[in-house]
Design goal:
about 1000 residues, alpha/beta, seven-stranded mixed β-sheet, six-stranded mixed β-sheet, 29 strands, about 45% helix
């Protein structure tokens, strides 16, 4: 007993066990028996404790669930994300957003979850399983959201986000911004379809063999540094004109100073001097040019098959398909269908219109979305920063490279989660560290550089940080515009009230929203109107030629990236090569907040560099960490927050200085107490709705293999290509890509055959190809469209401009506007407004932005004539005089809906300058504008020209740009716009004429 007693008192637990054992032994008549019973009891306790520990551990990890399931029960099935699936999930624990739901809503969400589970299990049985490594709940991760309590105080309610189907809590220690409230709701799949089935799909597309693109690319490669140097020197010197008066009458025979300098610095430019228009076109667009195309720009029919994959696997899509390119339209698109099917067509076409078949693809010139003066670029990273500027873009859009493919059926829930948030798909690995990229074109260096940008802005700097230079600039701008916005704000109130009421009614979190009755509601509406108008001014200022000031000014405020390697506390993952689902407002927010970063890159990075910002990485980091920042109210709220802090600090300091200090209250504590009191009086309140129209909705991230994306790089190795193609067939991912790394015809043919086998069904808009030539598909119905289209394309085009410098760009823009199908004449009228010439206006206003890229001036053929128009003359009068009695016109058939029976006499492009002559620097940037996209019949409006009411011209005008979603490219000079359309157009210009150069 002595030895036993020495061990027995090792713990209180052991003492209790022995005490119980002795009592049992006494009852049994033997203390020895009691000791044995105590040992048995202790063993039983340990076993029970161990079982309890594992029972609690298993639900958290999910690792041993298959081992410890009850006897006779099967383990829960595995879904395609790799996490355990159950139809009895506790939503209140799984996601915080379910906590305050009504019982009816919880039951609805539960039933929806059960259906999703059943669908995923059925799908898993049809294809190989792809289990993903899970992010364990509780691991530090940026995927988290927060919401302040109704009072707007400092207490935080963490809201889980989802990664690979596993909830993650918000990073500890992240303090909320004062009185910033976020609200969101959940959606059923049916509601998501209703909201987002018409989202825009935006492609980036490059055909490296197209002449204008090749011309710009070669000049940038051979002369880019010299061209940018001349433009920068001209801007900083403050020169008002690039050409001296002696050169203005030289008719191109003598070179102006800027171009004369390039002859000594740029061999490519020097080699094409003295050529004729036809020779120039052949040099940059002939067969030998096709052989010089690099891997990145080689066209192997990827875009055609990508669009097929979209129509095949996303039949629910009803939105636009927009292709942003350097100015070329896919040659395989049937011109007649693309121009007419949106408005004209028989019963078959009408049925296609209602079934979701795409009846139009719109090619937009990339220069139309790029900032003024920054357009000579082949840097796709820079261009991606501005794709959100596509006119009337939807709140969420899908961005695709032309080599991305949809491999199987995609539902709306593959793009959006239950909050309406975008689904982010990444590779399995995370970015190891961030550092400043070098001057190379290395992808690894670029990823590290972007990661450092994310670390600095999401971790090193506080969320309310605004650089001093930016703060001063915004304050000065908004102060100047305060009175002007007052009446605009009042007009907004009626529309804002309906929005606020709807959002509050839809919020799932009870007690969060507007309080205090009608007065508080009116006050919040007024504040929202003020914030929205303030942001609109900030956005407008960030989109003008102040980009140039930001690129060169010492007062600009780009993000300062520190030296050394930095590891993120948050986890950012490598992006996949798959369609990117983007909340548009996040890009809009960056264009203002990081305008100076973008401006520097836009000017200095004209080809891909490691110091670019890789936009998919930036989007993934910000959308998972701070979706509310996308709101138009966020930056104005920060400005008022800064002002409240400054006022509270001044008032607290004055109050503490005046009042005698109590011995029991230290000075710093008194100052803090006073500051808190005064700050509470001045701090703004703001409610941000995470609905993709205000802030962005909370996102969900899937990592490979849960992302179900495969990367394919096609090289000259035919056997290796076949292996990866077979792997795609076997694994059947949701998306895959075809990255071009080949330069042989054999590899190109192999890729075409593979894509044809995957996506054999042509889309409605395709034209058949026979013997290397594109021709429209046969059939009586399509034949009627082709005949109507051919008749329309033979009609004249009348252009109207306010300045003579706008004539040449307008004529060349018609090649893209009509996709090369126009066969009629062109008659341009120059408005005689009695003001100064555009060159004189640039000199008077000391315009400093100039294009130094050499561009041939127009030498017209007999199909083009130039005349004059009186100031204020109506479009009908200009068109009537220009067309005269030429032709009988084309009658639109009964299948053309509201246009049926109209006799079309011609087309009119109204490119007149609003308020000409220009008298301000802001107006000068928009003095000239020409169409920058392919046009279709629905882009025009009919204007009667007589003699009968049905005799009309079809007009596309700058004034209708927003209503019709037509893109125009603007500029202050002819040379500005000839950057966009640099080469002669064979249909309208004299190919035998010697090249003359436009004068900057």
């Amino acid at each position: 007993m002595k030895r036993w007693s020495r061990k027995a008192y090792a713990s209180m637990h052991t003492r209790c066990v022995i005490h119980v054992g002795r009592r049992i032994g006494a009852a049994c008549g033997s203390e020895k028996v009691g000791g044995g019973r105590a040992v048995l009891l202790a063993a039983i306790c340990l076993v029970v404790f161990g079982l309890f520990f594992f029972v609690e551990l298993v639900p958290m990890t999910g690792v041993l669930s298959a081992v410890l399931v009850p006897f006779g029960a099967a383990p829960s099935p595995r879904n395609r994300w790799g996490s355990d699936t159950t139809t009895t999930i506790n939503f209140a624990v799984r996601s915080f957003a379910f906590r305050d739901m009504s019982e009816t809503d919880k039951q609805r969400e539960h039933e929806l979850h059960v259906r999703r589970v059943e669908e995923r299990l059925r799908e898993a049985q049809r294809r190989p399983r792809a289990d993903a490594a899970l992010v364990v709940k509780g691991e530090t991760d940026p995927n988290a959201f927060r919401m302040t309590v109704p009072s707007g105080g400092a207490a935080v309610q963490p809201v889980d986000a989802v990664v690979d189907g596993v909830a993650l809590v918000r990073r500890p220690g992240t303090a909320p911004l004062p009185r910033l409230r976020t609200m969101w709701r959940t959606f059923t799949p049916a509601e998501l379809y209703e909201l987002y089935d018409a989202l825009d799909i935006i492609y980036s597309f490059v055909n490296g063999s197209e002449a204008n693109h090749h011309y710009r690319k070669q000049l940038r490669a051979g002369c880019g540094a010299h061209i940018l140097g001349l433009e920068k020197r001209h801007f900083l010197s403050g020169n008002a004109s690039a050409a001296s008066p002696s050169h203005l009458k030289a008719e191109g025979k003598d070179l102006p100073p800027l171009l004369a300098e390039l002859t000594t610095q740029c061999p490519i430019y020097r080699s094409i001097l003295g050529k004729r228009n036809g020779e120039l076109l052949k040099h940059f667009g002939g067969a030998e040019n096709t052989l010089r195309v690099d891997d990145r720009d080689r066209e192997t029919d990827e875009l055609r098959h990508s669009l097929r994959s979209v129509e095949q696997h996303m039949p629910w899509h009803r939105g636009r398909v927009v292709m942003v390119s350097p100015g070329h339209h896919p040659t395989w698109v049937d011109g007649a269908k693309n121009f007419l099917a949106g408005m004209c067509g028989d019963a078959r076409v009408q049925a296609l219109r209602t079934s979701g078949t795409h009846l139009r693809v719109t090619t937009v010139h990339q220069d139309a979305v790029m900032p003024y003066g920054m357009r000579l670029t082949v840097d796709s990273h820079v261009i991606e920063q501005h794709l959100w500027r596509v006119r009337n873009v939807t709140p969420v859009h899908v961005y695709m490279n032309d080599d991305y493919f949809v491999n199987r059926g995609v539902a709306i829930t593959d793009l959006f989660n239950e909050y309406g948030g975008t689904i982010v798909r990444t590779e399995g690995g995370n970015v190891a560290a961030g550092w400043k990229g070098d001057s190379s074109v290395s992808w690894v260096q670029g990823v590290a550089n972007t990661e450092l940008f994310n670390i600095v802005n999401l971790e090193h700097l506080p969320e309310d940080f605004i650089p001093k230079e930016l703060l001063a600039r915004w304050r000065g701008m908004l102060t100047r515009g305060a009175d002007k916005n007052l009446s605009d704000g009042r007009r907004l109130f009626s529309s804002l009230k309906a929005k606020v009421d709807r959002a509050v009614a839809a919020a799932r979190l009870r007690g969060i929203g507007l309080g205090g009755g009608a007065a508080a509601a009116d006050e919040e509406m007024e504040q929202e109107a003020r914030y929205i108008l303030a942001f609109s001014e900030m956005l407008e200022a960030a989109s003008t030629s102040s980009y140039w000031d930001a690129a060169f000014s010492a007062a600009s405020a780009p993000t300062v990236l520190p030296a050394g390697r930095h590891k993120s506390l948050l986890k950012h993952y490598l992006t996949t090569h798959a369609p990117f689902v983007y909340c548009t407002n996040m890009f809009r927010h960056w264009s203002v907040r990081f305008r100076d970063d973008f401006a520097y890159a836009d000017f200095h990075h004209r080809h891909r560099l490691a110091r670019d910002l890789f936009m998919p990485f930036v989007y993934n980091a910000f959308i998972m960490a701070r979706p509310w920042e996308a709101s138009a109210k966020f930056l104005p709220y920060l400005l008022e927050l800064k002002e409240a802090m400054e006022v509270a600090a001044a008032e607290a300091s004055a109050a503490v200085t005046r009042s005698p200090q109590a011995e029991t209250l230290p000075f710093i504590d008194a100052l803090r107490e006073r500051y808190t009191h005064h700050f509470a009086r001045h701090a703004p309140n703001v409610s941000i709705f995470l609905d993709n129209t205000d802030g962005c909705a909370p996102a969900t991230l899937y990592r490979n293999p849960a992302a179900e994306v495969m990367y394919m790089r096609v090289t000259n190795d035919i056997a290796a290509n076949r292996r990866i193609m077979d792997d795609i067939q076997q694994r059947h991912p949701l998306y895959f890509n075809a990255n071009a790394g080949f330069n042989t015809a054999e590899a190109a043919d192999q890729l075409r055959r593979f894509l044809q086998s995957k996506f054999p069904t042509p889309v409605y808009l395709e034209a058949e190809v026979a013997d290397g030539h594109t021709r429209a598909a046969a059939g009586a119905e399509d034949g009627a469209l082709r005949r109507l289209f051919g008749d329309l394309m033979a009609l004249p085009v009348v252009g109207v401009v306010s300045y003579e410098e706008g004539v040449c760009p307008l004529v060349r823009s018609l090649a893209l506007a009509f996709a090369g199908h126009h066969l009629g004449g062109v008659r341009v009228s120059v408005e005689q407004h009695g003001g100064a010439t555009l060159r004189e206006a640039r000199a008077a206003l000391r315009h400093r932005v100039v294009s130094a890229m050499p561009a041939p001036a127009c030498r017209y053929s007999e199909r083009v004539s130039v005349g004059s128009a009186a100031r204020g003359e109506g479009i009908a009068d200009v068109a009537r005089r220009a067309i005269g009695g030429a032709g009988a016109g084309v009658v639109l058939p009964s299948t053309c809906g509201g246009g049926a029976g109209l006799r079309v006499r011609g087309f009119v492009v109204d490119a007149r300058t609003p308020g000409a002559p220009v008298r301000s620097a802001a107006a000068l940037r928009d003095a000239l504008a020409v169409p920058a996209q392919t046009l279709s019949l629905e882009d025009f409006r009919a204007v009667a020209v007589g003699p009968s009411e049905g005799d009309v011209v079809l007009v596309v005008s700058r004034a209708d740009a927003d209503a019709k979603a037509v893109h125009w490219v603007n500029g202050a000079s002819e040379s500005d716009l000839l950057v966009t359309y640099p080469l002669p157009v064979e249909a309208y210009e004299d190919m035998s004429a010697e090249v003359r150069w436009s004068v900057p």
